[in-house]
Amino acid sequence: MFKNNLKIAWRSLKKQPFFTFLNIFGLAIGMAGGLLLSLYIYDELSYDKMFADSDRIYRVNSDMKFGGKAERLAEVSAPMAEAMLNDIPEVEMVTRFRGIGSIFIRSEEARNNVREASVTYADSTFFTMLGVPLLHGDEQTALVEPNTLVMTKTAAEKHFPIDQAIGKTVVLNDQNTYRVTGVIDDLPTNSFLQDRGLFLSMAGYEDSRMAEWGSHNYYTLIKLMPGTSGADIQDKLQSMVGKYLIPYAQQFYPGITEQQFLDSGNYVNYSTIPLTKVHLYSGRSPEFSPVSDIKNVYILGAIALILLVLASVNFMNLSTAHSLKRSKEVGIRKTLGSQRSSLIGQFLTESGMIALGSLVFALIIAAIAMPLYNDLSGKELEIPYGSLSFWLILLIATFALGILSGGYPAFFMSRFVAAKVLKGQGDNSIGGGGVRNALVVLQFSISVFLIMGTLTVFQQLNYIQGKDLGYGKDEVLVIRGVNALEGNRNTFKNEVLQLSQVNTASLSSFLPTPSSRSDSSFMQADDRSQEKVVNMQQWRVDSNYMTTMGLSLVAGRNFDIERFPSDSTSIIINEKTVAIMGKTPENAIGAQFVDNFNTNSLMTVIGVVKDFHFESLRDEVEALGLFFGGDDASNLSIKLNGGDMSSTIASIEAIWNKLAPTQPFEHYFMDDSFNNSYEAEQRLGQIFMIFTLLSILIACLGLFGLAAFNAQKRVKEIGVRKVMGAGVGQIVYRLSMDFLKLVGISVLIALPIGWFAMDRWLEDFSYHINIPWWTFALSAFIAVGIALITVSYQSIKAAIVNPVKSLRTE
After folding, report:
1. pLDDT per residue as tens digits for the range 196-221
2. Are residues 577 and 536 in contact, defined by beta-carbon separation less than 8 angstroms?
3. Residue 377 and residue 369: Cα distance in Å, rounded?
4. How many CB atoms lie within 10 A of CB 464?
5. Distance from C-alpha of 763 to C-alpha of 761, rounded to nearest angstrom
6. Under a CB-based contact definition with an 8 Å cutoff, are residues 93 and 197 in contact?
7. Verdict on whether the full-model pTM lies above 0.90
8. What DSSP designation does 242 have?
């Protein structure tokens, strides 16, 4: 029987190639989109699961409020690792990382440096704890001694053959020599160690051995004993505040108790998070590597499901639209003795064959789209053709989709009454209009929702790019790594200023565009109690910084070291800092701060700068202090006058090569750096747009099928109306209005849901748009316009048919 069903199904599909193509094409688009999104989601959910005993590894977090700022940190203090090993029996092993950004590196024999972008200090337990094998070297001795390092294969190959790397000496920043004690494979892109190429021994890092409980700079992982969870050690973890942190704070605030600390509104709370959940559930800053958000996974998962549902609905509509042509076939087969179950089996066989055909086309579409999709998603995904489980899941999903899509049409067509359809009364026996209408409403509700989501995402991105940030990022060229110039920083700056294309230039440690930074605590000189401490950023800048960045003073003056030598111990604060101090900008001038760690150093406020957004617009503007001193700067920011940028860059590079011939010249534009900080939102917007277009395409195919069904069902009515004098326009209007009513219902359903969902998404930004009224209107207009165009084709086609032919034939 099954073989017979296959033969009949094949003949039926060949007999109607256009109908078959529409069904396969619609399902293939949905399946390809679902496949690509599923690969992305699988990759997001797989982060850090490749490490040994990953289910027992946790990261220690710290939540704190101090100095007027609440922070959720992914790091803890240096001595906490040893304290956990000593005080918490459930902790089996601990390891720490301390990222230090980029460095210049060369082999001892080489002359030219290479820039290594992501460098970190690491404890020697790193390899054993995470189960990272060494390609060369011994994990028991690697990173044990000071001034040793481990390189990834790619990092090592820049300097020497990896099998000859062990024992080699390299020079960092033309100052420190390190011995290579290990080479590891490149670390997975779906891990927190992605892009890390160089690991320096923590044993040689003096800061890591200091009992600085107040500085939280170490990314700390713990491996718990089998059967132990993070919740089991929470109380012991929190007890370290009273045992270690408060005694440390008493050095600076004599007599302070834990209760006094809490009563003032301050707090420090320690917690753990499973390593495998960090990528999607952390929500902390700064992170050791870029992270995502579980909400994005939910959004993309919903889009994948939506595409499959739309494709399935499309199949149902096209199948039921085609049912009129097969009504007599069903009637004859029933008359000849076919049972309804056998008819259902026949139609499900056909839908299964269409689903299999769609799978083939979906794989082809996905393979072709994969390079573009990887660029869009920022990943390196590939279809796992060699995985048996992948094919098993794919086939099960395909047959499930075939049954889901073909189930309703199969039951719908198998219930035709043989006597009626053979008498030519098929129109009356074929119902299901309510179900088909509901499916159209579902399709277009989803499409309107996605249209509105796409418009909102792009409006927010435009708002971010057009918002007055309080500084000028356009035409600002940044030369990074100027610390490689050592004593020639100012020489380089002065020679660059001689170029006619350069307006001004500034040496600084930090820039307004979002980057990894840390805060410092400062006491107010007139009241050194812990309640009056201000926690703020500490940037080293020169006197040209404010001009180059386009910052505005609201009180006081800029640095002027030539006229006021005391400016070397002065500070310019922002309005947020003034607010925390409880002063006005004018009253803040002359106020003095004391560094918590150097209580003999007084810094006098000489100016107040207008708040500017130096962090992401997801966050509020926080306290900031600009301190004079460009001698240890790592960046030179150059405000250009426009013109030929490539020529200007070439001139600057020539100056660099004269002063630092062995150092790589690296530059970028500040506006590009700003845009890159919102890469996740840009990608989300692009994904929304692409899959919205796909959903609209699939919905239009379904509407096209329903319009064809409606035109077929009303062919005699149309003929009679034309004979009675109705024009083409009147007929098209009557046929189209039925569908436009459905689209109108879809709009009414989708817009409130869309507003609610996008309003929740916008809450992630401290600064965001309010969804304007025209977003609702444009979403509705696009949906109605697309539906009208789709339906009009079938309506006009039916309206221009000769009425004689319509009334003579069935």
Report:
1. 999 999 998 999 999 889 888 999 99
2. yes
3. 12
4. 23
5. 5
6. no
7. no
8. I
